Structures
1.
Amino acid sequence: MTTYTEPVSRLLALGEPDLKENYREKGKVRDYLPLGFSAEHVPELLRMLEDDFLWYESDPDGAESYAPIHAWRVLGQIGDPSAIEPLISLLPRIDEDNNDWIGEDFPGLLAQFGAAAIPPLEAFINEEEAPTYAVVAAQEALKEISLLHPEIRSRCVEFLSEILNRESFPGIEEEDARTVRGFILSSLIDLGAREAFSAIEAAFRKNFVDFSIAGDLEEVQVELGLLEKRLTPKPNFQTLERWHSSRPTGVPTTTQEVALPPLNPSDFRFGGHGKTPKTAKKAKSKNKMAKASKKKNRKR
């Protein structure tokens, strides 16, 4: 194992951190700076993030296995911009290693760097190899930046509106691209982005959006305050998504078709519509992230 100097070495003994850090509220996160951290420790903290022993070979229940988590939280509190791109480079581990810590932590963590994190996050989303939930986390980081720094909200809303209507994402299958767009839509709702409604409506008409994450177009109108209440009965969005995901994307649809339920919902039962263990695992991950996002934003 690589050796570290004080105070970085102290992170090896801190043990499991709290998963429920709230980066939006001061006093809701552990303060590492009193341990003696400053910008001079950034290179060694980044080295800790690249330590394969800590990631893959240390005792998964041992204190030292959690050291990289403490290291990235320290980097967020120091706020040195040189740490932004190395942190973003860890996002693919959400998909590759099923790393929930990165998925939960990084949107709020990266938001601490403010406007400096926007260009590298946008560049990451545009990368050819960026996987599904890494892109989801990156776009959520843009949302979190907007919530912490309202003065740059318009730029983030404009970018999110643009990628919501992107026909494809390099390296992401269409089924997963629907998921990405569903989370982008959720971010726009969280930002109260009424100005993005034309882009949102266009995405629904092109059948680009996963209905199971933020609902149908009418639900979005209610969430954005554009409708006082629904005009039609609230459908089962999971069932609605199974129907819409079986239809081609990019084909214009009417407002009625956007909310049309399947003719035979029993055809879309789990296991009855070609759902494989792989797609079932994707659905589980998607539902988990959607619930976490909604829970987080109810606390705003």
2.
Amino acid sequence: MAEETRILGFGRDILEPIGPRAPRGRIFWKVIRAKSEMLTQGERTWIKERAWVPEHVVPLMETISGGEAHLRGGFLLFHGPGWVIFVGYPLAPAQERGDLCQMILDVESSFRPYRMWFVGEEIPSILEKRCSERGSDRHFRLDLEGIGQSWEPAGRLGRSISKVRENLRVEVGGGFAPAHRELMADFFGRAHLPPRVKRLYEEVEDYLSSSTTGILLSAWHDKMGLASFSVLETWPERFSVYLLGCTSRERWASHSSDLLMAEMIRLSAKMGKEFMHLGLGVNQGIRRFKEKWGGYPWIPYEECGWRRRGSAMERLGWALWGKF
């Protein structure tokens, strides 16, 4: 079920070069990146240990957005050419972090982006009248306490998985094959995905090829080929992330996504994860799938996007980048 999850795909919509002046923009962006405050290895480890939402998964967010991660006052942000994503889910306790509203203003002042996004549990008061794009949802969580290597889902769900296991084998790891691309292309032809979600699918092959923590799981039928695939992200210390999934619409693939979910749950528990992030609710069908597995709506997800007018010189610079 490729609609089973949703994760942020900010940045790419304004990152790709447009027009003949784009190469100059890319060179300029490399200069900006070289001078900005990149994360140290120690900071990456600190974030990895304290991460509690998918937006804190630095390698994933950097790859999907195309930006670079920064720490400001106990908050994480991602910066690209002319844009910033501010992650309002704090990494530091209240007594150790800065004021959220002041942090947003400081980031806007120092990076001076054309476009800026905020994601967090609630929209800060200073942004209420500035948002031109809004979104609301909830993160879904699945607790892994008590799940061992021999765990099997109970009841009707367990019986369905036992039956489908007779015809399918699960491959953990490996890279994208032509069959994965064909399955994804077929899904694109019959599903209406939001641009950011589709972009995530389009980027996942490159992400897996460079990631040491993203895991591809595939369900194969000996005669019919690929039935389903899913991607699990395991970078955070405490949890894993069900990143995405894609399933054939053929009858023989029935419950293949459930088979992979069971495998991801066992794998996450084996790695010592406390819980799995199942992504956002998105719609009723996706919520039902997550709730079927014991997932429950956890923390709110609020999204806000806005544009800065900028000075005349800034607007000239943006035009020279060929981005806007």
